[in-house]
Amino acid sequence: MPTQQTIRFTSDGYQLVGDLHLPDKNRCPVVIGCHGLLANRQSPKQIALAEALNRMSIAYLRFDHRGCGESQGAWNSRTLLTDRCRDLYHAIQAMQSHSAIGGLAGLFGSSFGGTIVMAVAADHPVPRLVTYASPITSRTVHQQAAADQIQAHNALSTNELEALAFDIRPQLPLLKNILVLHSENDEIVPCDHARQIFAAARDPKKLIIFSGGDHRLSDPDCQAQFIEACTAWFRSGNSAKKAS
């Protein structure tokens, strides 16, 4: 029967907290997930994906980045991309030393979390990579929609939002083994970001646009398509690794 462990690890002196979903199998590969800009590890998408991957004998780690959820630390808009990449590096290291984990199966990132996993995968290639609704530059993100989210969460001021600047377009040609997912009616991150990722990345790659979906993936049909696409992509990577 699948089990769940609370994981604590350190990133640049901050204690980060995560949940590790383990299938009923020892030394299984793991997928590590990164949440969005103002989210935390309790994302319903990540929990559903973790449960689906466990049924395929793949573990899943979802964790809170520094300053989010139960993790220590604070926001720094000017270094946020670098800080969160560092958190992911340390999450990977924590899994490499975990006795129940047999290797890294891939990375998953939602919204800004996808930006993070792409930035990390450009420097350290991973077996499989999945992004959902992920911006590649802050300049073209719908500022009003982002500001509405920030006001709702009381997480960032307008000045802090303006200080958040990133552009990972130069890193996109370094990516491969990537599944790019996006919703057609995303009100925060334009769908063109997904098309640019797909056009720049190397094979193997795949692009899926959910018809009529929104940024939060609130439509049940889109949610089902999301789980099916993600599990198939990670399964193919795991099968290829076993064959080699």
How would you describe this structure to a colleague?
The protein is an alpha/beta fold. Helix content is 37%, strand content 23%. It has helices spanning 44-54, 80-96, 112-123, 143-153, 158-163, 192-200, 220-243; strands at residues 3-11, 14-22, 28-34, 59-63, 101-110, 129-132, 178-183, 205-210. Helix 1 crosses helix 7 (220-243) and helix 2 (80-96) packs across helix 3.
**Helix-strand category:** alpha/beta
- Order of helices and strands, N to C? EEEHEHEHEHHEHEH
Instruction: Please give the domain count.
Output: 1
Strand content: 15-25%
- What is the CATH homology-level superfamily? Alpha/Beta hydrolase fold, catalytic domain
Give the termini distance in whole angstroms.
28 Å
- Into which percent range does the helicity of residues fall? 25-40%
Main CATH class: Alpha Beta
The number of helical runs is: 7
Oligomer: single chain
| Rg of Cα set | 17 Å
